[in-house]
Amino acid sequence: MSERVPYLEDTAGQHFPLAGPVITLGRSRNCDVYVPDKRASRRHAEIRWDGETATLHDLGSANGTFLDGRRITTPQTLRDGDEIAVASAVFTFRDPEATFRITEFPLLVVDQATGEIWVNRKPITLSPKEQTLFDLLYRNTGRICSKQEIAEVVWPEYRAEVYDYQIESLVKRLREKLEPDPRHPVLILTVRGRGYKLIANA
Q: Left if phi > 0, otherwise alpha if psi is -120 to 50, otherwise beta: which for 43?
């Protein structure tokens, strides 16, 4: 069996294998991955590989290291398909022999301070009604929220009955934004005859 060796792939298709425990990225030609951009620091970032897990570290760079469009402030575990940006250079992390795939179960992150929602490190923008439904499900993670409860929280302005199709349509739109495959939801589950529940990341 061949040794598992993840690699970075740049936009030109060039590969940079993680052949050692640490590879560095930066403007210095002494780095393993040379980034010829004056906005890159000499030693900008590094990836540490222990044979099982790869983690991305920013090395105090002036302009930041970005993972899937978000500037990192702490070490981040890399997954197959992640996009890393150092100044103008963009790399895709490839780990084709990994046993875990990011599509198996979406990584849901909610920033309690800002209210931002991220799925698989991608920011999600919700409409006001979608946000209210998400907040209800998130506050009650793992618990079934009935359609009546959803109607009362999401549509408090309605004195008349909220119809099932309105709730189902809203759930469908929320799934389309959160789920990798909305046809086979794994985050927002339907509990037939009872309602819906949000499943947290393991």
A: beta
Q: Which domains does the chain have, with CATH numbers?
A: 7-94 (2.60.200.20), 108-198 (1.10.10.10)
What tokens does 139 get? 């506050």
CA atoms within 13 A on the CB side of 61: 30
Does pTM top 0.70 for this prediction? no
Q: According to the per-residue pLDDT averaged within each range, which of 110-114, 132-136, 191-195 is highest? A: 132-136
